[in-house]
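Anyone else keep sequences and structure tokens together like this?

Example one:
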Amino acid sequence: MNQDQLKGKWKQLTGETKKKWSKLTDDDLQHVDGNKEKLIGKIQERYGKSREDAEREVNAWEDDNK
């Protein structure tokens, strides 16, 4: 899923995002607003993960939600 597709589907995907990463708040998701880099950063922040781990999770999640 490219950045434009993610941004376009973001409102639909926020529920799935909250299921996957329950520590993300509504404010976090509003801030991310479909931006993959921001999502990776928020996951790093909330879960204490490395950038590589967060990016791997987001990529897998994107593949599951195509």
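And example two:
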Amino acid sequence: MSARHWNLMASISLVALILLGLAWELWLAPLRPGGSWLVLKIVPLLAALFGILRGKRYTHQWMSLLSLVYLTEGIVRATSDSGLSAQLAAVATVLTTTLFFGCMFYSKLTAPSRMAAAE
């Protein structure tokens, strides 16, 4: 796969993760009825959105590291929560894994050493 494909994978999974986080914590299965302050967990994802969409290598690098926090949350909540919340956590885990690999391989394929070797 080319760097463009990995960037597309990271972009789609990031947008989906943002939408899932909003829906999960505000409407679908919030910790408290009416919504939860846990919705603020999407703020770092929003900070990375434009950099990922524009193909900024540095953003992909730090997002690959930050995504591990979201992966941990998804695994913990998928195994400790029940019902819809556990299902949403499983979806978040898949999206976060996709985001991680998209960012990691995009960063690898756009490294300056690889770009110089391609010329």
